């Protein structure tokens, strides 16, 4: 079966060829291409299914022989160097291929329905195929130069897809923000690549690792310079995987269509940074200071993303900050040397987050028919509520994804997140505390999103009219009752036949389905992808479940994902008792977060009326300033965007204005000054030319006399 590896080139080539064909036909024959739009979509999906089957075969072969295969061709050859291009196949590559293709196929099937109304339907599939091909090429790359080429292609595709609706100013600004932010990281990555080439003389991964370790062993390299180059390499994943402080592009990237949000957050762009850290893990592992930086950047990002997600009203942005937080978990795991746990969480999170984003797309698709196509309305959770009654399949699958992301057993993310939290405690208690607290915050904000979206009663309905009342972020029940009573007094007389009001239970207006537009469940194509994604969300976590003592722990992942480090201390036997104790520790904070979310946002009030008033009194008199600070921090994104706007945007504009002033009045002023002086000098001397020789002789003699007088006296 080894001959299969020789045809690995078709994995990135077929999606790239599909994208090229669609793009060329769309450019030269736009009308006929758009008339055959569904055939182009079917072609894209079928090609990607073929690639997925091939990737599955590669994965199976890797499970059987667990070997590394390289296929290289000389590209640039001279006496001093021989640069080659080709493909590298190992366990890490095979898992990433399967992850990318499986998620991309489901996203394409989903997009066929979600984007069917859009005029850019064909263009979207061209971009989607190119995006997938770029990511597949990235994970197959055997050297840093090839990685960088596909790295830039991934960034370009994200720019095109985030700004897909470029006529909308917010989308145009978002894609530019993502592109520019990633350029900062990519420039650092390029400098790091060149730095390590200068040290080792090679771009090939295996050769680079071997030479660098030899240099360290014989102390033939400046450790500070090597650490600086590694830090520059790390700058690329910081930007691509939305790590602090280059995370600001990720929530704004939600301006793109929801299917691409799912693909970016699950299996492509943000996963690229984690993949690169995993691929270069032997390099970073040799530099303990860089590993510490990676772990602390991951921990800060995880906590920051979780705190900012607490008060987001936009459904997709809440999930975006959730992605940022989970990527921080992965980076934390890699930084503390927990290679297997970090990659395991990348796999489990990908399917869970794809399920959540596609579920949010189903909700948005349904809400658009009620309150319009503005993202400020159809993605605003303040206008949602009670959607589980109207969209039971979407609500159930979203709840499954929420369970998984919160780390509730036996769902997928429980196994990986618990491993990261446990390893964090063992490495350093400070990192353990951060990982543990972040788990509780994750449970709180994810169930807040679920309760506000799917439970309670619908807070908006429309028949060219919409009714709404704001949802207090900290469960301020009195405020909600006042708003509801205000709406009741003003609108009940006009619309009394069509709705009922129940103020005592703090329920929203009830609208009879015959009179008002109400949400509808999505069509079968979208629901099919949601149902399919529940399967890996349920079962893929068992790949990392600990086995009884004496059998290999983390059976399919610990040794298989660690081919370069056969003697890793991470390959240990499973111990159910130890695992259970650690799980109780993490689950305690998770269920606490869920309980608080249920009290504040759940469909049922936990308190009797008198206790409810006491709770409000306690909240207002004692805890309100604290909650207000947290709310403002979260709602305004930690003020980081504001700081960046002041320091970088306005600062660069002021610098540009100063440079313009300096250029116009100093640089140009000197040159223009000499020109003006010459003009006036010429104008003044031309009047001395009268054409009389006697006048010229008089001037000559007078000048010589004056000069002699000055010299001698």
TrEMBL record:
| EC numbers for this chain | 7.1.1.-
The terms describing its cellular component in GO are: chloroplast thylakoid membrane
Where, per UniProt, does this protein localize? Plastid, Chloroplast thylakoid membrane
For this protein, the record's Pfam families field holds: Proton_antipo_C, Proton_antipo_M, Proton_antipo_N
Q: Which parts of the sequence belong to the NADH:ubiquinone/plastoquinone oxidoreductase chloroplast chain 5 C-terminal domain? A: 448-663
Catalytic reaction(s) noted: a plastoquinone + NADPH + (n+1) H(+)(in) = a plastoquinol + NADP(+) + n H(+)(out); a plastoquinone + NADH + (n+1) H(+)(in) = a plastoquinol + NAD(+) + n H(+)(out)
InterPro entries recorded: NADH_UbQ_OxRdtase_chlpt_su5_C (IPR002128), NADHpl_OxRdtase_5_subgr (IPR018393), ND/Mrp_TM (IPR001750), NU5C-like (IPR003945), Proton_antipo_N (IPR001516)
> Where exactly are the transmembrane stretches of this chain?
6-28, 40-63, 83-109, 121-141, 147-166, 187-209, 260-281, 293-311, 327-348, 393-412, 424-447, 527-547, 583-604, 658-681, 693-712
Q: Which GO terms describe its biological process?
A: ATP synthesis coupled electron transport; electron transport coupled proton transport
Domain annotation NADH:quinone oxidoreductase/Mrp antiporter transmembrane: ranges: 141-441
User: Could you name the domain of life of the organism this protein comes from?
Assistant: Eukaryota
Q: State its role.
A: NDH shuttles electrons from NAD(P)H:plastoquinone, via FMN and iron-sulfur (Fe-S) centers, to quinones in the photosynthetic chain and possibly in a chloroplast respiratory chain. The immediate electron acceptor for the enzyme in this species is believed to be plastoquinone. Couples the redox reaction to proton translocation, and thus conserves the redox energy in a proton gradient.
Q: Which family does it belong to?
A: Belongs to the complex I subunit 5 family.
PANTHER family recorded: NADH-UBIQUINONE OXIDOREDUCTASE CHAIN 5 (PTHR42829)
Its recorded name reads NAD(P)H-quinone oxidoreductase subunit 5, chloroplastic
